[in-house]
Specification:
The chain is of the alpha+beta class. The protein is built from 7 helices and 5 strands.
Length: 146
């Protein structure tokens, strides 16, 4: 029997199945900047102040959209179209028909595997509220593969 992420389309998943596709990397919580001239999106080492930096999980997940105006509610359509989602993202991988990576917790059976594989933001980011807005550009990173 195929795992649910191979047997169903993203828009057919239950809420529990959808949520379990999140690998816990927290790369989507990184603050992104758009180049006004080229439209290119740049990831920064800055993350939402609601992110638990050790667990790479939102501390206010149910209220995140009310508390953070730029927090995007990911959907099946967005998972297939948002080019700033990292190629490693479970949602993007399934939307593109690539399946989940070996280190994904649904495959490995271990939620720590995303951190052990070096895919998560753990130890690589700082909360955005600790950096003045004029200095955000100084924190652009290249390690996020989009």
């Amino acid at each position: 029997m195929k795992p649910f992420w191979e047997a169903k389309s993203l828009d057919a998943l239950s809420e529990h199945e959808w949520e379990s596709l999140c690998d816990g990397c927290a790369r989507c919580c990184m603050i992104k900047m758009e180049d006004a001239d080229t439209g290119e999106i740049h990831h920064t080492a800055l993350v939402c102040e609601l992110l638990d930096l050790n667990r790479c999980r939102c501390t206010r997940y149910p209220q995140r959209h009310e508390l953070v105006k730029d927090c995007i509610e990911l959907s099946a359509d967005l998972a297939a179209s948002l080019r700033w989602l990292p190629k490693s993202c479970g949602y993007r991988r399934v939307a593109e028909g690539r399946g989940l990576a070996d280190w994904h917790p649904l495959v490995s059976g271990d939620p720590q595997s995303v951190h052990d594989a070096g895919v998560s933001v753990a130890g690589k980011v700082i909360p955005v509220n600790l950096v003045h807005e004029d200095e955000h550009e100084d924190h652009i990173v290249r390690w996020v593969e989009t």
